[in-house]
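Researcher: I'm preparing a figure for a lab meeting and need a structural model of a single chain. I don't have an experimental structure, so a prediction will have to do for now. The sequence is pasted below. Please return the structure as C-alpha cells so I can convert it later.
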Amino acid sequence: MAPGPELSAAKQYRPNAYVSLPAELDPDTYDSTPEKRRAEAERLAIRARLKRQYQLQLNNPDAPAVIENPALLRWVYARTQNVYPTSRPTPKMSFLGAVCAIGPILFWMAAFKFERDYKERLIKEGKYERPFSLF
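Model: Understood. Here is the structure written out cell by cell.
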C-alpha cells in the first residue's frame, strides 16, 4: 500500500480536552476577513517599499555619509518618545515604583536599627565586649 502525502502538523493536530488550542491553529487567527488581509497586504507593501529604498541607498556607489533607515528611525522613536503605550501611570505602577525606590531604604534602615539596638542591649547586659578600633 503506497503511503499518502504527508500531513502537516496543523492537519495532524487534534485538540485535547485539557490543553487549549494554540493561536497558530485557531481558525479565528488564520481565517482573517478580506479587510484584514487587505490591511496586511498594504503593510507588507509599505515594508517592501521601505526595504527597497534602503537597499538602493545602501548599494548606491555615490552613497551619502549617513544612510538613514526609516524602520530603525521609527523603532528609536517608539522606544524613546512614545513611552505611554508600554508604561502608563497607573496606581499599580505608582505602588511598584514606590516599593522599588523607598522599600530598600526602609529595609536597610530597619536592619541597621535592629542590629544597633541588639548590640546596645548586649552591652548593657555586659555580654558584649566592644573591640578597640581607631576607626
